[in-house]
Design brief:
Layout lengths: L5 H18 L2 H10 L5 H16 L9 H18 L1
Length: 84
């Protein structure tokens, strides 16, 4: 599916991230941590923002570079591991 319709596949993963954020329970949080490794940067960014909200009650990441986004991924994985 990813090869045949990459935009459709990424939109489905994006919708899943939004749904998991809305659910917000422990299982959803664990799945959002997995979404931090998504190859699509928009899906990854939405997972970052969902986890910032659920784990730390912080607003969206205001990063201008992919390097800042990748640093936030690492940081959030560490935060999630300490709260597990």
């Amino acid at each position: 599916r990813e090869k045949a319709e990459p935009d459709v596949a990424s939109n489905e993963r994006l919708a899943a991230v939004k749904l998991l954020h809305a659910i917000g329970d422990r299982a959803s949080t664990a799945l959002l941590v997995r979404a931090l490794d998504d190859r699509h940067n928009v899906v990854q960014r939405d997972a970052i923002n969902a986890l910032r909200d659920l784990l730390e009650q912080k607003g969206p990441l205001e990063a201008n570079s992919i390097f800042q986004q990748l640093n936030e991924v690492k940081r959030l994985k560490d935060v999630a591991a300490t709260k597990a």
